[in-house]
Amino acid sequence: MVQIKTPEQIAKMREAGLVVAAIHAATREAAVPGATTRDLDEVSRKVIAEHGAKSNFLGYGGFPATICTSVNEVVVHGIPDDKTVLKDGDIISIDAGAIVDGWHGDAAYTAFVGTGHAPELVELSRVTEESMWAGIAAMKLGNRLVDISKAIETYIKRQPRPSVGEHSLGRYGIVEDYGGHGIGTEMHMDPHLLNYVSRKRGKGPKLVPGLCLAIEPMVSLGTPHTEVLKDDWTVVTTDGTWSSHWEHSIALTEEGPLVLTAVDGGKAKLAELGVTAAPDPLG
């Protein structure tokens, strides 16, 4: 059953979303060579405490941290620890969440550690992030869930094949086993949102005011296939190629989409795509 929110509830989700945005800003600054992924989790814990919020990751299904730290070939759900030390040239996807008065926020981004990153990694992150925004722009009244999936997939498939020098790496891999989801009084709710079109899934529900979704493409430089490591959390590509993960939580209103986890509510980026963002309920 898809949960529909009132404007007042969306305002609370906006509060949670801004806490997530603050976690992103702080962890991005801390993701430097020599830092451990546990160091980043400590930064996240501090931000959550400073905002009087709660973590929706800590304890979720037994997860032991407040963020997921997914380095290089890790797609999602990497567990922060003292052993994983960030090195110059690494990429890391950080997935973070927060709860304010029972309402959830959830978002992820890919960061570059140090300097001198390979062009194909910079392009991988760009393609993944832009496909997310294509999906957000498709979150319009009257559209259906599949229109978001189609926008994400179409954007990715229209990009030039990634390559290293003169050598083609093949097509980008749109990760198949994980996708977006509804969000509200729980972090993961119906509907499940694929990052590609599946005939088996049909068109999905119609997009209506009060619908809130976490849109999160995950893309690799190779395979779309993944496997879970022995810790029962860490998801890696089966061919070892590196991956990127971007995510925002969005509320659809009568006045358009509001990107709950973006500082400006998504106003600037959506304007580039010809979409007007909904007014921020917090002003």
CATH topology: Creatine Amidinohydrolase
User: Uncertain segments of ≥5 residues (pLDDT<50)?
Assistant: none
Question: Any idea what the shape is?
Answer: globular
CATH class (first level) name: Alpha Beta
CATH A-level architecture: Alpha-Beta Complex
The percent range for strand residues is 15-25%
* N-C termini distance: 31 Å
Query: Can you tell me the CATH superfamily?
Result: Creatinase/methionine aminopeptidase superfamily
Strand order of the largest sheet: 9-8-10-15-16
Number of helices: 5
Can you describe this structure?
There is one protein chain. The chain is of the alpha+beta class. It has one domain: Creatine Amidinohydrolase (Alpha-Beta Complex). Helices cover 27% and strands 24% of the residues. The chain has helices spanning 7-30, 37-50, 119-137, 145-157, 267-272; strands at residues 67-71, 74-76, 91-100, 103-112, 163-164, 167-168, 173-174, 180-182, 189-193, 212-215, 218-220, 226-228, 235-237, 243-245, 248-253, 256-259. Strands 9-8-10-15-16 form a five-stranded antiparallel β-sheet. A three-stranded antiparallel β-sheet has the order 1-3-4. A hairpin with a 2-residue loop joins strand 15 (248-253) and strand 16. The relative contact order is 0.18. The mean pLDDT is 96.
Which features does this protein show?
5 helices; alpha+beta; three-stranded antiparallel sheet; Creatine Amidinohydrolase; 27% helix; five-stranded antiparallel sheet; 283 residues
